[in-house]
Amino acid sequence: MNFEFKSKYKIFDRIILGITFTFFPLGWLMVLIRVLSTHVHHSCKGRNHRLLGWCLVYTYLILMAFVYLSYDDFGPAESSEFGEYVFYFGLAMILPALAFFVLGGAADRKFNSLLSQYYHLVMERGINEIDHIAYETGQSPYPVIRDLDFMINERMLPFGRIENSILELEPEGYHQQYETNVDYEEYEDDVGDDEYDEDEYDEDEYDDEDSDDEEEDTHTKSKGPRMMECPGCGARIFVVPNERKECEYCGNVISM
Length: 256
Prior knowledge:
By secondary structure, the protein is mainly alpha-helical.
């Protein structure tokens, strides 16, 4: 199976670019923190390279604007001097920016190739040992675990979890069953108790049935994973009950 994944900017990344354009020293500090904290994830490498490239472009434009405004008079001599600044700063910043853009595209293509290999090994060959998958793809086990978690969260693989270096996937159709359960729970919350008139039903008749429904709902909620929002960056992540999971975008640990 061929994947066409391309790492995208989050809201936090766009805020960083905006800060870089208005106050580039602070923007660069935030960019470096962002890149260093997420670059271990293959899914973030393409975005990080492009983020660095755009920060270089914005910094170049701001510096050229400062140089231009520093001239009181803009005669032939100043024009020549300004042209030299444009050329040398361009070599120092625009060329590295272009290199980062190229590296970003290469990182996304490499990750797509890895995704295809993971899918082939797991879904077609039935391999679920992390060490075996790592050997087949030429990766170490920890990046493989992060990549498989990413595929599960993005629904490139069925729901599942990794325990004791074994990938355990839910049977086919679990996505649809989980969505149906979630929709049913939302419907129950919307309907509430107002739809039922106390005079229209016998309380004793429905006590047993309500108890069975509550037990079934509790079992469903405790069994399936839940969508949660990362408090650090706002990304939405599937978390299995009683499991601590690291956000692949900012590194925060989320649990339920």
